Amino acid sequence: MKKGWFFLGFLLLTTGVWAQEQKKQAPQYAPYYYQRASLFEVLPATSDDILFVGNSITDAGEWHELFENPHVKNRGISGNIVEGVYDRLPTLLAGKPAQLFLLIGVNDIARGTSADSIATGIHKIIRKIKQDSPQTELFIQSILPVTPHYNMFEGHTSRWEMVGEINRLLQQITREEEVTYIDLYSRFALPCGKMDPQYSNDGLHLLGNGYLLWKEIVSPYLKH
After folding, report:
1. What is the mean pLDDT of the chain?
2. Which residues pair with 176 in a beta bridge?
3. What is the 3-state secondary structure (H, E, C) of the chain?
């Protein structure tokens, strides 16, 4: 009887350890993250690179065409969150890029993450970039406004008021870290703080005129 209980206890223990190992090894992000991240790992990286880093809003931009500059590279991944950007910093910084423009955080809002936690995560990214690639000129772009006007992406758009709160925290962090903060938010937002519908047809992602406005705002900071 004792042997039977011992075997059962051993089986439960080993099963628990195996389950924990499987959990550690399980994919943390969607398949698209790994598809795109693995591509970035094999593409050339140089100190002339100007990287646009972020989620689907960045991913959808044809950046080198917008700026007519082959050094400008798209490093956005649809669905990306703050932690996802942090995890791929070794690849992003491999070539010691000249400039890095970061826009991240709105998908974290949809996951229910607090404004403080989102800002803290971005702060962690800033410190890591400054430590591992101090010659890279870093720009933190404000999170763009969203709007529930279209009744789409409710996880993001129903929490539209959080965007302004996060951006205020980012302004404070960038001042402390002496990093350039680029205010996209105020140019895209209505006076109430929601996204101006002329720049989006789903309340979250941008239309073509939105990318042209983004280019206009960022152009003075871009190395040519």
Report:
1. 91
2. none
3. CHHHHHHHHHHHHHHHHHHHHHHHHCCCCCHHHHHHHHHHHHCCCCCCCEEEEECHHHHCCCHHHHHCCCCEEEEECCCCCHHHHHHCHHHHCCCCCCEEEEECCHHHHHCCCCHHHHHHHHHHHHHHHHHHCCCCEEEEECCCCCCHHHCCCHHHHCCCHHHHHHHHHHHHHHHHHCCEEECCHHHHECCCCCECHHHCCCCCCCCHHHHHHHHHHHHHHCCC
- For 84, the token pair is 């996802």
d(CA 209, CA 217): 13
pLDDT for 28 equals 86
Is residue 87's pLDDT more than 80? yes
**pLDDT score for 220:** 98
